[in-house]
């Protein structure tokens, strides 16, 4: 591979990292995916919170989003994928979480690139935007899942009595999970989505009824 090709790949990777960084204006910091309800009900330990996030990655929205993203990166019809993503949202807050972030993501990428990207559920919006990038699909999915997990860890450290170092240890421990979920999703069809994180869906529903809330979801 010549220097120009390597430079282009590095530039594309930095572009993706920028799009999925906490600084990108999708407002991800405002969404806890129901984790706030779990913490409000008493789960504040690093081990318990890590297990909850791992369950979401392996068996909840992490797995579903990974497959949706993989399909979008293969060029599947984004409108169809968006409809599936919306239909799979298990609660009002889960729907608003993916739709609001996806719309903000598409709007900002459109402004940066000059492309006309439609507002879609977040994994579909990311897949459609990243389609022209010269990055392997499993890497795109892994970076997406890492951003998702990192945001949940940040929510945990803001709410629970966990230090920044504990949070980073928790995130590092989730790296093998992220690689496993990304690897399984990269060649999967939409029919491979199979979620079983019922506790996370119920937590998202209970979050709607919290009297005091830091996060939108």
What is the global morphology?
A: globular
Assembly state (oligomeric)? single chain
CATH superfamily: Urease accessory protein UreF
CATH architecture: Orthogonal Bundle
What's the overall average pLDDT, rounded? Answer: 91
CATH topology: the name is Urease accessory protein UreF
Largest sheet features? none
From N to C, what is the helix and strand string? HHHHHHHHHHH
Total number of distinct structural domains: 1
The total of beta strands comes to 0
Number of helices: 11
Question: From the alpha-carbon coordinates, what is the Rg to the nearest angstrom?
Answer: 17 Å
What is the helix content?
55-70%
Helices and strands: which structural class? Answer: mainly alpha
What does this structure look like?
By secondary structure, this protein is an all-alpha fold. It has one domain (30-207): Urease accessory protein UreF (Orthogonal Bundle), CATH 1.10.4190.10. It contains 11 helices and no strands. It has helices spanning 3-19, 35-40, 46-59, 61-73, 78-88, 92-113, 122-130, 137-159, 164-173, 175-185, 198-207. The termini are far apart.
């Amino acid at each position: 591979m010549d220097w120009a090709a390597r430079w282009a790949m590095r530039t594309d990777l930095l572009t993706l990292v920028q799009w999925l960084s906490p600084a990108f204006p999708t407002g991800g910091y405002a969404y806890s995916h129901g984790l706030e309800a779990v913490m409000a009900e008493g789960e504040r330990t690093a081990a318990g919170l890590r297990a909850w996030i791992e369950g979401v990655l392996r068996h909840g929205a992490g797995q579903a989003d990974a497959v949706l993203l993989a399909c979008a990166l293969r060029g599947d019809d984004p409108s169809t994928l968006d409809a599936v993503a919306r239909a799979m949202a298990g609660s009002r807050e889960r729907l608003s979480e993916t739709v609001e972030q996806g719309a903000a993501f598409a709007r900002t990428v459109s402004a940066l690139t000059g492309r006309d990207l439609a507002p879609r559920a977040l994994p579909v919006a990311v897949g459609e935007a990243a389609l022209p990038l010269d990055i392997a699909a499993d890497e795109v999915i892994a970076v997406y899942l890492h951003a998702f997990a990192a945001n949940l860890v940040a929510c945990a450290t803001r709410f629970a009595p966990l230090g920044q170092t504990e949070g980073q240890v928790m995130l590092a421990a989730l790296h093998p999970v992220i690689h496993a979920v990304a690897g399984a999703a990269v060649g999967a069809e939409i029919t491979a989505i199979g979620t079983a994180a019922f506790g996370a869906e119920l937590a998202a529903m209970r979050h709607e009824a919290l009297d005091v809330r830091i996060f939108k979801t």
